[in-house]
Design brief:
Largest sheet: 7 strands, mixed
Number of helices: 14
Organism: Octadecabacter ascidiaceicola
CATH class of the largest domain: Alpha Beta
Helix content: 40-55%
Pfam families: Aminotran_1_2
InterPro entries: 4pyrrol_synth_NH2levulA_synth, Aminotrans_II_pyridoxalP_BS, Aminotransferase_I/II_large, AON_synthase_class-II, PyrdxlP-dep_Trfase, PyrdxlP-dep_Trfase_major, PyrdxlP-dep_Trfase_small
Domain Aminotransferase class I/classII large: 47-391
Subunit structure: Homodimer.
Strand content: 15-25%
Distance between the termini: 64 Å
């Protein structure tokens, strides 16, 4: 077997399809986000503006977060020292879990190294806790949810995206006595659309099913205290397990679930993804706890975020650019071809100092390749003008289609 030849062939397929992912060297500067410095392939330094970051509110640069992290690292050092079972549980971890449980009005919360691991570990463990469990998963659920459900060895059903009739039909066809769980997201990150949470909860009640809600793209940004879409809609009490991240709106790193004390204890005790993983550093936990606490009371930052998203969508729509707008903070601009999407991304970076990564298959379906913009409160009028002007010029330069404008 010529292993190198196999690797060459696999990589060449990505190049041929225009799906090969290129990482660029970016250095963020404290206090200057979304501005950063790009080291070009030739070694030159170029100032750029980041338009595809998931630090949605700029909390990764916030003094409250940085001060908490400095204080913790000075007090404890760098690492956690091991898994939570051995030596990696500290007052910082417990404080963060208490903040998260309070955020979601749950009895408890459980920390993981990422939201991906939280989804994977929890969903792959639940059938061990509830033998015979059937999981009903939305067709557009995140890869971490898909992987956790795939690995658990239990029964699964994939219902059409946000299709309540399809979900009810599937649940009605299964054994009424079998334990059931519905897994879905509140905000789907590629299109920016919302789940019908209340209606899904109604169906869960009808069939005595548990509910598992991924709020990764909503925590910190929606609801009066940043608890997510379920908090915004007054539905947190109807969700059994909430998954969230500390790496997006909260600006740090890590993931978690929030649920009942018994549920968290059972996952903690049975999930290999928790048991055998070194815990996040105390300084990271301290920064995340400070961020969560701050965003519980900073509604102004959430309002600014929504305003910036609305402004960008309005301006792009006014130019006839084909955006998707479901009312969330995510702004997908459809290009529809992987090669053109990559070319636009390259030209924005090289010619305009604007960084936005192309989103291609398999993250999105073929033919819906896109640029995905994430405006934030720290993207000002100057940055907005530069982005809109660059997109307008490049759309014409590349002779891409524009939508018909009303009036």
């Amino acid at each position: 077997m010529d292993f190198n030849a196999k690797l060459d062939a696999a990589l060449e397929r990505l190049h041929t399809e225009g799906r090969y992912r290129t990482f660029i060297d970016i250095e963020r500067k404290q206090g200057q986000y979304p501005h950063a410095v790009w080291t070009t392939p030739e070694g030159a330094l170029k100032d750029i503006t980041v338009w595809c970051g998931n630090d949605y509110l700029g909390m990764g640069q916030h003094p409250v977060v940085l001060d908490a992290m400095h204080e913790a690292i000075n007090a404890t050092g760098a690492g956690s020292g091991g898994t939570r079972n051995i030596s990696g549980t500290t007052v910082y971890h417990k404080r963060l879990e208490a903040e998260l449980a309070d955020l979601h009005a749950k009895e408890d919360a459980l920390l993981f190294t990422s939201a991906y691991i939280a989804n994977d570990a929890t969903l792959s463990t639940l059938p061990r806790l509830f033998p015979g469990l059937i999981i009903y998963s939305d067709a557009l659920n995140h890869a971490s949810m898909i992987e956790g459900i795939r690995r658990n060895g239990g029964e699964k059903r994939i219902f059409k995206h946000n299709d309540l009739d399809d979900l009810r039909r599937m649940m009605a066809a299964d054994d009424p006595s079998a334990p059931k769980l519905i897994a879905f997201e509140s905000v789907y990150s590629m299109d920016g659309d919302f789940a019908p949470i209340k209606e899904i909860c109604d169906i869960a009640d009808e069939f005595s099913a548990l509910t598992y809600l991924d709020e990764v793209h909503a925590v910190g940004m929606y609801g009066p205290r940043g608890g997510g879409i379920a908090e915004r809609d007054g539905l947190m009490g109807r969700i059994d397990i909430i998954n969230g991240t500390l790496a997006k709106a909260f600006g740090v790193m890590g993931g978690y679930i929030a649920a009942s004390t018994k549920m968290c204890d059972a996952v903690r005790s049975y999930a290999p993804g928790f048991i055998f993983t070194t815990s996040i550093p105390p300084a990271v936990a301290a920064g995340a706890a400070a961020s969560v606490a701050h965003l519980k009371v900073d509604q102004d930052l959430r309002d600014q975020h929504q305003t910036q998203a609305k402004i960008l969508k309005t301006r792009l729509r006014g130019l006839g650019l084909p955006i998707i707008d479901h009312g969330s903070h995510i702004v997908p601009l459809i290009v529809g071809d992987p090669v053109h999407t990559q070319k636009l991304s390259d030209m924005l970076l090289q010619d305009h100092g604007i960084y936005v990564q192309p989103i291609n298959f398999p993250t999105v379906p073929r033919g819906t390749e896109r640029l995905r913009f994430t405006p934030s409160p720290v993207h000002g009028a100057k940055e907005m003008d530069a982005l809109v002007g660059a997109l307008d010029a490049l759309w014409s330069h590349c002779a891409l289609n524009r939508a018909e404008l009303a009036g």
